[in-house]
Each structure stands twice: as C-alpha cells, then as structure tokens.
From TrEMBL:
tRNA processing is among the record's keywords: no
Lineage top rank: taxon: Bacteria
Gene3D superfamilies listed in its UniProt record: Periplasmic binding protein-like II (3.40.190.10)
Pfam families: SBP_bac_3
Protein name according to UniProt: Amino acid ABC transporter substrate-binding protein
Domain Solute-binding protein family 3/N-terminal: 36-263
Alphabetical UniProt keywords: Signal
Signal peptide: 1-26
SMART domains, per the entry: PBPb
Length: 280
C-alpha cells in the first residue's frame, strides 16, 4: 500500500519530511561564509560584472563587503543554464548581486533598484524627443532589439518588428556582446534606434557612446511590463542571511543609488512610473 493511502504511515512520513526540511535549512544557513563576501558572478557580463572588477555589480559587492567587514571573493560562471545550480546551490558562493524579483531559483532580498528597458537614439537626431514605442516617428525605421525580450512584443504591437534588426538573447558573453554590437551599429548609422535593458544600455552608452541619448520606456501600455525590480539572490531557506542583506540595503540605499547612477543605470521609482532624481 502506498504511504498516501495509509493515514498512519502518511502522518509518520510527514513528520520525517518536516524534520528533514528543518535540518536541511539549518545546514544551508551554515553554508554562508563568515570570513568572506562570496559572490556568484558572470566573468564577462559587461557592464554589470567583470572578472577584472570593473563592473558596477563588482563595485556594489565591494560596498557590501566593506559594510560586513569581509573581503570579496568570487565564483565565476557564465550566466546561462546551470548558473545557479553550479554556483549558489553548490555552496561555492553566497549571493548573486543582481537578480529579478520573484524568481523561484533563489530567495530574493528586498529590491535595491527598479529600472526599465530604454530607447537609445542619437542625441542630436530627429528621434531625440521620442519617449514611447507608439510614437508616429518610428514606423518604417530600423530598430535594434534583443530577440525574445519583452519590448519586442510592444514593438510588434506598434508595427515596428517588420524592419527590426534582432540581436541574440543567449550568448557566451566571453566572446559575444549583443548590446555592444547594437550600440556600435546605432553609432555607425546601420540602425535608427536601439531598445535595450536599461542597466546594460545606460552604462554602455555613458562609457562608450556619449553622443547617444537614453530614454526609459515607462509609458508603454499593456503587457508585458518593461520595468523590473532587481534584488540580490541567496539560497532558498537562508532567511537570516536574507534579512541581514535587507537591513544593509535599507540603511544604505542612498549610497547604492549614487553608485548605480554614477555607472549610468537609469533608476525609477518602485512602480516604474518616473525616473528618480539622484544627485551625482
């Protein structure tokens, strides 16, 4: 007879499972290092995380490590299928610095930034005043977009997909950079505008393309949403570690905002409705 068909056996099994889960959670909490701020990161996710330490997530990690009075250490692995399994879940590191809120693979901290997809155009060109994908100036033009990303749906709704130039969504960032390629094509006049995730596009524009303008797409109606809250990710069950990071985020939000703004990340209010005015 299967356990679920015998109430007594089912009750005993349930008690065993509860005990095992509790023990597992306690063991998982013990995995967090007390001697280093151990970060799981992509070695070539420019401009976010870089093995040479130049990404803004690297600087964010340094900020948190300083607050915790621990050195930063990294476990490097490409941000692709298996990233969480091979790094965070394997106990090799304790935190992912940037993770979308609500993802089931990790336990999210409170969000430390809200950002959105952006439209990038030449600063002195005829599209400089465009703020939404329904603008009548856009049909017939060639827009770059990451294939399969949320803005593609809005572009299709507004008749912009037919002439769009798609760029790959999933690549090995150690050898390819679709966002950089898109911005280079825009600067060269091969496309008329670029649509990118703001925390990637904004910093790349600020660093490499000062002649381009970045406008957050905060006026697009309907689904899918184009703004997202970004958290840190820790292992499921590590509530003490999550609360410790939450406390640091809450108490140091102005410094976090300043770091991200300096990097060129467009920051929005929690509802993605307006840009934050963060002093630099």
């Amino acid at each position: 007879m299967p356990a679920w068909a015998d109430p007594a056996r089912a009750a005993a099994l349930a008690l065993l499972l509860v005990g095992a889960a509790g023990a597992g959670q306690a063991q998982t909490s013990d995995l967090v290092s007390k001697s280093a701020f151990r970060v799981c990161a992509d070695p070539a996710a420019d401009p976010m995380s870089m093995q040479d330490g130049s990404g803004y997530e690297n600087k964010l990690a340094e900020l948190f490590a300083e607050m915790l009075e621990r050195p930063v250490s990294y476990t490097w692995f490409p941000m692709a299928t298996g990233f969480i399994r091979q790094t965070l879940k394997a106990g090799k590191c304790d935190v992912v610095m940037g993770y979308a809120q609500g993802h089931e693979l990790v336990l999210n901290t409170n969000h430390y930034m809200t950002s959105a997809y952006v439209l990038v155009v030449p600063e002195d060109g005829p599209l400089a005043g465009v703020t939404e994908l329904s603008d009548p100036a856009l049909p017939g033009l060639k827009l770059g977009v990451i294939a399969g990303s949320p803005p593609a749906t809005h572009m299709a709704r507004n008749g912009l997909i037919g002439k769009a130039r798609p760029y790959a969504l999933v690549v090995d960032r150690r050898v390819e950079s679709p966002a950089s390629d898109m911005l280079n094509d825009l600067a060269a006049g091969e496309i008329d505008a670029a649509v990118l995730w703001g925390p990637i596009g904004g910093p790349l524009v600020k660093r490499d393309h000062p002649g381009l303008k970045v406008t957050p797409l905060i006026k697009e109606p309907g689904a899918p949403k184009l703004f997202y809250r970004i958290t840190m990710g820790v292992r499921q069950g590590e509530k003490v570690w999550q609360r410790q990071l939450n406390s640091l985020i809450r108490r140091n939000q102005p410094e976090i905002d300043a770091l991200l703004t300096e990097a060129g990340v467009p920051l929005l209010d929690d509802m993605g409705a307006r840009a934050l005015d963060v002093g630099q």
